[in-house]
Amino acid sequence: MNLLLIERCNLTCAYCFFAGSLNARPAERGGHDIITEENFRVALHYGRDFVATGLRDSVNLLGGEPTLHPRFRELVAIARSREFALPNGAPLPVSVFSNGVFEPQIAEFLSETPCGLMLNINHPSSYSGRLWQRLTANLDIIASARGEEPFSLSLNLFAPDQEVDFVFDLLKRHGARHLRVDVAKPNSAATNTHVGFEALPAMMPLFERIAVRCRHDGIALNTDCCLPVCAVDNDRLARLKEAGIFLSFACPGAIDVTPALQLFYCGPLKHLSFGRIDGYAGAKEIVETIEETVRPLRWEVATRKACETCKWRTLDICQGGCLAFKPPATAERRSHDEEQIHAERLWPEPQAG
Would you give the DSSP letter of residue 91? Predict the structure, then answer.
């Protein structure tokens, strides 16, 4: 489960699928752009249920840039406290997803805190002023205290000729052994820099080059979103398999929670809201409710005309790439009953007693 601590960021990455919603005035979000401790605790109860029932592996603290939250360190400590321990007594698994451009005090805190840490990075030339120097200094601080696996790096691909060697330089310098790579997905309005459906095949040589380099350098590589089958030819698919990369052709969905406790499937589908998380009995009901809406979009709505007769779609193997590629009208279509359920989630009836 992804828990957004704050809907502000100190960078403006063109490919970000929250582009257009980050850094907007709080009034445009109903007055909420930063999570309160009360809402944080409410969300954590559901996050613990997600992990305890095996529906998710961890609670991920995101933004925006989560370290911009003025009580970031306190919130991490709360999430790791005995109050939210799992039934077996183990601490709740917590991971922080950040851009790494934070103050040295935050770097010191993260270097000492037993939590997962994934840092999304861009090419050095894309950082203004001394932000790249701040990022690399923070990596030095964190790596000096965190041992063999100090952090994971994340890289978003948006151009076939994108320079990526700097990533491997950073991994080697800090002894990091995990890289997350994904092609940039569209936001709900497709206004961000992203890789369009027809452009996906052109991105595959770069993806393969990264996979081969990771195998050579002993780096674990993963991608968390899906591709359409038609983006990858059989020969490249075999080479990727040889490099240890098994592509997914259907997405599991992230399950994101905003500071105002609004629930949605994932960043690119933020327009598909499922009401407040505290309108649900638990993690299982959340997953079932979201799947009822997303399943028809995934398997019954063709992304392109050619998808209508594609065997991989009819076999429920390929959903046709990111669900944000689906025709906009179908992504927002709801029956009267679904609208009523949605309204009840937003404004639940008061409970007697």
Answer: P
